[in-house]
Amino acid sequence: MPSIIVRKRDGASRVLNAAPFSYEDVLQRNISELPNLIPLQTVSDEAVSHLTIGVEWPAGSGAADVVLIGSDGILTIVETKLKRNPQARREVIAQLLEYAAYLSEWTIWEVIRRAEEFFQTDKAFPDHRGKTVNEVLRLFLEDTDEAVESFKGKVEHNLRQGRIRLIVAVDEVSEQAQKIITFVNSYSAFDIYLLQISAYTDELDRQIFVPALYGYARKVPTTPETIQWNWDKYEDELGWCKA
Question: What is the distance between the alpha carbons of residues 157 and 73, in angstroms, rounded to a whole number?
Fold first, then answer.
């Protein structure tokens, strides 16, 4: 974990104390309560904010740790793993893909139903508890009912297109995990990232989080460029002489 040094105006400085996450559910809770810990702006020109709509959502054979919706209308699934858990390297990627395949078959109405249930629990953000999905979306988008309906249509379209954002959140990134994520991201239609969140405390016992996103890669084309073929071009490329 990198050191954080704080320098005061009088010139004095101190190193912040590292405060590693003791359990994966602590990391999960911080992401669900502070979704802006996902710094997508570092890998995208578009500033994307996130709204937490679920925690421990049943998906296939397991449960997705945190489910969010981005302001770009893309469903985002976060799976949390601490470095000491060997699953953080390989199995977690297959787990995320299973969740994505399961959720991609949902309609917007299933997403709304699950989110509605979540907003009635004490795991929801305090300002969202007891509210309907439309009420929460109005707060999130800071817009009208018409904009909310348009946004829901965008979410539905992205689901149909298989556009889902996948994030593996860890306390410390390993080189092997970063290589795997970058490779998968290069050849996939969806976005998958590795989110490292380093935690510290200061002299006032305040929590300080330092997020970093890894795994961005330019997509590799999956189909070759179509070339218009003709006999003259064929002869020219091979250097043949016309009879």
Answer: 9
Residue 160 inside a domain? The answer is yes
Strand 191-201 relative to strand 164-170, pairing: parallel
Instruction: Quote the CA–CA distance of 45 and 42 in Å, as a whole number.
Output: 8
12: domain range?
5-238
The answer to whether residue 223 scores a pLDDT higher than 90 is no
Residues in the chain, overall count: 243
Structure tokens at 20: 């590693």
Listed residue (153, 156, 158, 62) closest to 102, CA to CA: 62
* SS3 per-residue string spanning 172-210: CCCHHHHHHHHHHHHCCCCEEEEEEEEEEECCCCCEEEE
Give the 3-state secondary structure of residue 25: helix
- Residue 220: per-residue pLDDT: 65
Q: How many domains does the chain have?
A: 1
Whole-prediction pTM: 0.81
Identify the pLDDT of residue 87.
58
Is residue 243 in a domain? Answer: no
Structural domain contains residue 186: yes
Alpha-carbon 8 to chain mean position: 35
Contact (CB, 8 A) for 79 and 65: yes
Q: What is the CATH number of the domain that holds 116?
A: 3.40.1350.10
Q: In the chain, what is the straight-line distance between the N-terminal and C-terminal CA atoms, in Å?
A: 71
Structure-block tokens of residue 174: 């390993």
Residue 119 identity (one-letter amino acid): F
Kindly state whether residue 198 falls inside one of the protein's structural domains: yes
